From TrEMBL:
<dbReference type="InterPro" id="IPR028082">
    <property type="entry name" value="Peripla_BP_I"/>
</dbReference>
<keyword id="KW-0238">DNA-binding</keyword>
<dbReference type="GO" id="GO:0000976">
    <property type="term" value="F:transcription cis-regulatory region binding"/>
</dbReference>
<dbReference type="Pfam" id="PF00532">
    <property type="entry name" value="Peripla_BP_1"/>
</dbReference>
<feature type="domain" description="Periplasmic binding protein/LacI sugar binding">
    <location>
        <begin position="1"/>
        <end position="129"/>
    </location>
</feature>
<protein>
    <submittedName>
        <fullName>LacI family transcriptional regulator</fullName>
    </submittedName>
</protein>
<dbReference type="GO" id="GO:0003700">
    <property type="term" value="F:DNA-binding transcription factor activity"/>
</dbReference>
<feature type="region of interest" description="Disordered">
    <location>
        <begin position="133"/>
        <end position="163"/>
    </location>
</feature>
<dbReference type="InterPro" id="IPR001761">
    <property type="entry name" value="Peripla_BP/Lac1_sug-bd_dom"/>
</dbReference>
<keyword id="KW-0804">Transcription</keyword>
<keyword id="KW-0805">Transcription regulation</keyword>
Amino acid sequence: MTAGLSHEIERHEMLLFLANSEESGERQQKFVDSLMRNNACGMVLCAARETPQTFFESLKRRNIPAIMVVRPVNDPDFDFVGTDNFLGTQMATAHLLALGHRHIAFIGGSQSSGTRAQRIGGFTSKLLEKRSFSGPAMDCPQPGEPKRRRTGSREFVPPVPGDHRRGLLSGYCCARRNAGAA
C-alpha cells in the first residue's frame, strides 16, 4: 500500500512522509502536529489503537484532509480504505473446505480486536453455511504483545521441512490445547 501511495503522490509532484506511532497516541499526536507545522496538504492515517474521539475532532477542526486506513473510525467525516476481513476469512475457509479439510481452526488476534471479530464472523458463517464441517470449530486467540503473537506458533509447532502449510493451523491449535493454553 505504501509503495502505491508513494507512486501516486509523486505523480502529482508531492512527497510522502512516513511515520510509525507504534500504537502510541502521544507519538501519533506529535507526528500530526509536525505535519501541520510543515504545511502538509493531507494525511493517510492508521490510527493507534485506543485513539480517543477528541483526536479525530481535532483533525476535523484543523481542516486537513485525512483518510483512515486499516482501522475504520466510527465517524462519517472520514473516508476509509481497508480490507474486508469478514469476506476474506469466508473465502479462506471456503477454500479449505473445498480441499476437503474438516478440522479447521481460527488463530490469532486479541479478543478485544474488532478485526478479529470480523474474521471470526467470516470463519464461523462459512462453516455454518457449508454444514459439511464435521469437527469442532476451534478458536485460538493469541494473547500478548504483537511480537509475542508473531512468534507464538514457533513455541508449539516445530518447523517442518518442505511445504507444510496445510495442517499447520490445526497442529498449532492442538498443541496449544494440549499444553493447556487454549
